[in-house]
Amino acid sequence: MPFIPNTDEERAEMLKAIGVSSVQELFSDIPERLRIGSLDLPEGVSEVEALEAVESLAERNVQTKKMDWFLGAGAYYGYIPAVVPALASRGEFLTAYTPYQPEVSQGTLQAIFEYQSMMAKLLGMAVVNASHYDGATALAEAVLMAWKAKEDRKRILLPVDLHPEYAQVIETYCASFDIEFVEYRGAPEAASFDDRTAAIVVAYPDFCGEVYPIEKAAERAHEAGALCIVQADPLMCALMKSPGEQGADIVTAEGQWLGNPLNFGGPYLGIMGTTEALVRRMPGRIVGETKDKIGRRGFVLTLSTREQHIRREKAVSNICSNQGLSMLQTCIYLATLGKQGLKEVAKQSYDKAHYAAELLGKIPGYRVRSSRFFREFLVETPKPAAQLVEILTKRGIMPGLALSRYYSDRDHELLVCVTEMNTRAQIERLAAALKEASK
Amino acid sequence: MAIDKNARYLESHEYAKPSGEYMVFGISDHAQAELGDVVFVELPAVGKTLAKGAIFGTIESVKAASDLYAPLSGTVVEVNEAVKNDPSLVNKDCYGDGWLIKVAPSDPAEFQSLLDSAAYGKAIGEE
Amino acid sequence: MNTMNMRDEPLVYELSRTGRRGCALPKSDVPEYVLPEDLVREELDLPELDELTVVRHFTRLSQKNFSIDTEFYPLGSCTMKYNPKVNEVAASNPGWKNLHPLVGEEHAQGALELMWRLQEGLREIGGFAAASLQPAAGAHGELSGVLMIRAALRARGDDGRRKMLIPDSAHGTNPASCTMAGFVTQTIPSGPDGNIDMTALRSALDESVAGIMITNPNTLGLFEKNIEEICRLVHEAGGYVYGDGANMNALAGIFRPGRSGIDVMHFNLHKTFSTPHGGGGPGAGMVAANESLAPYLPGPVVVKDGEAYRLAMPPKSIGRVKAFHGNFGILVRAYVYLLMMGADGLRRVAENAVLNANYLKSLVEAVYPVPYKRHCMHEFVAKGTVAEGVHTLDIAKRLIDYGFHPPTIYFPLIVQEALMIEPTETESKETLDLYAEALRKIAAEAASQPELLHEAPHNAPVARLDEVMAARCPVLCYRG
Fold this sequence. Notes:
The complex is a heterotrimer. Chain A is an alpha/beta fold. Helix content of chain A is 36%, strand content 15%. Chain B has a single domain (8-108), classed as CATH 2.40.50.100. In chain B, the strands form two sheets. In chain B, strands 1-2-3-9-8-5 form a six-stranded antiparallel beta sheet. The longest helix of chain B has 7 residues, at 29-35. Chain C is α/β, with parallel strands linked by helices. In chain C, 35% of the residues lie in helices and 11% in strands. Chain C contains 14 helices and twelve strands. In chain C, the strands form three sheets. In chain C, strands 1-7-6-5-4-2-3 form a seven-stranded mixed beta sheet, with helices on both faces. A three-stranded antiparallel beta sheet of chain C has the order 10-12-11, with helices on one face. A two-stranded antiparallel sheet of chain C has the order 8-9. In chain C, strand 8 and strand 9 (308-312) form a beta hairpin. In chain C, helix 10 packs across helix 12 (429-448). Chains A and C meet through helix 1, helix 2, helix 3, helix 4 and helix 5 of A and helix 2, helix 3, helix 4, helix 5 and helix 6 of C.
């Protein structure tokens, strides 16, 4: 067996050293009747066969790369520079544990510190943690964090157009507590703040692509004694004002499109950042800079008393394993693209999306509903959007998300996303196909 | 371990020490030694009322965090800002500069119910 | 002696030079559009590096790590087994990487079939009625499981039960997960044999009990001999039993937790099923349940409908615990491992994991006291009490000089100066012999030259770091 080196001879020697006559004897604590006779599983196979089995399954899926791709809705097809997987897949990163022994984990620790630094600057926050499972769980944890920070207040204001799956995750995470959710529509500053409000969640942009400035909402939240949580698109922050400079107290985001593949929904990257005032309430691992005894710079996990392995039932969260490798991919992605590259990815996405909106808006029967958007916008369609998706898919175009997937009463709305990967020709094919399909 | 004779103690190692009409709360020398280098203290706001035995804050080292229990009931009148900025004061001088909060006691008689220095010394295994 | 990179490596910001770029995009072929004036970002403080600088930087950083690929890494309860390279090849297939999570089910049949096969395989291994692949980590599986218990209690009008029992040897995630589900925890002490103290358990079982969380084998590496009796008692008291599957590497293919009375349990695919730890994650914490709790599983789960596979929410699901479909890329890796192992392979994994742990224990227990005199399962706990004035931390740091990653230390909390060692089945006898030899040498050094231990490590990119300074004056972001 390739992954078990012990030979029969060695096993015999080892058993002798232990002082038992068989391996079974080592399992004598397990009551006989609870031991398995046999499992209903296929026989093990070789590496060649396993790989073939998985490859044949992989072939049975559609691929972004083989179509004109305009579907986003919380997971985006972006370019991943070759250096990102090449470096992140190095065994020294891939097969290391959580860096609890800092002297032999400086690689992972420094990379986390660099990620924290770049992400904090991108989001405009004082501190960013070493990751959550995804954007949805980061936001759910942020809601719990704000609710606990504002004892005696139980109201959380949520935008109607929050990603539906994020809203569902918040609901699951908060099910055990007395938290009241109040939905608001449109501009966040118009939400009804009062002295029971613990926090407002602002989606920047919202699920339908609309971008609302945060500043006034943050001011109103602070006047009411509440916190301002922003769920942000981190790529958009390369072009538009960061949540931090607009007054956010907690920022969460999904980082998949900064260097991580689509992978059918995971592993992705949950991002969370906050202010200095709230850092000791923030869940997740945090790396800090320090020195060793001869004054060399080094990095350690710090502020650990927030965490489960020390504080147990009083920990700020139960999170332990995070998305370390996805975080590393994003760290390398940000370092590779850098200041100019990231701006350009964002600006090309912006320009291409606005070009697409212009073309689609001119097709009779279609109306672009988003007024201010980054790279995803909502289109009213003359036919049910799900039908259009079906028709266009057959022609090699994935035109977007039919909102009827999540909302049964919104069947004539299509959410179209354009990234830096789309070409002018693809956009023009999309417009032509939508025109054709509406007839 | 030093035990301040003017203070009285909880078994959880917090002390209360008279200071004029007020009471000063802190943690004992034994507690600071057990905890190791203190890196952070979280203390209540001035004006907060505390019941005897209630949690009034937390004190942390790198690898441990302890809740702080109020030895007496009362209202917080002052918080040691110096110790918030430099938590090592708790290690250096827990009965002096490393005090935590000052409280106006609501029931001064409660002081007598605490362990005196001899009893506290016994509780921590010192004569 | 190890081969780590001892040179200081600057931060990406310190390597930055204005005007450099590491990756160019194709030229835009559409007109430019104006940004909303009130939202234009002025300043973006990201580094500027060329590609080779990026490559050298992260390569050099990687060389400052210990990893399974480079060193023996016997962290207790972490199952640092070899992560097969074939897993990585399989997971990097474009058919997965370029698969969007919101395509229609008809466009993702390959992915759904893989999920279904893994879900059903793991369900069978655990002996449960149903499983969900949604949770992204072990603690996420725990949270799902205790939320399921909470939901089931609520459904039967018993939401007043809020007490969750946790053995004193449990991982910190157990009590922390309970708090996130609104439960209050009560610690149950271990008895002299290292198992749950049955008298203490009995007296804790009252009308307020929601359940118990059990890790089996526990963190002492010992099998809970009374598992059936514990489950029976908790059920009689009206509670549920949660199984923490962190240590399933000792049992897969040998013992099915679902058949011993455990109601709901998570499996760590990044431990038992060989997916890499990635310096902290991502993991996958699939959760499985018996008939009584299966309807509450987090969703969606994959169901087989004739020849087609589709996503469905279990009837009384606690809902979504993350967006989309779990950490799918990790599921691919675990599936490859499961295919290659089969039932027989899994049994051999468990047998060799237990054999290796007992062998290593037999080599060191004369020097490092082992508090519980029993056969261990996949790991064992010893004490670093080898010489006056020397602590477990010193021994751990000295192991680094010998080129070995230290074991888990100071855990479980119930053993003072604990060293918790899990060699796993993928390590050879020679490696175990060398490790034992290093531990014995260190014990001798502890007596003769304790300063060697106190000052260790001597052969690492940095010496012991000032964690007090890091926590007192946190520097959490580059300030240049």
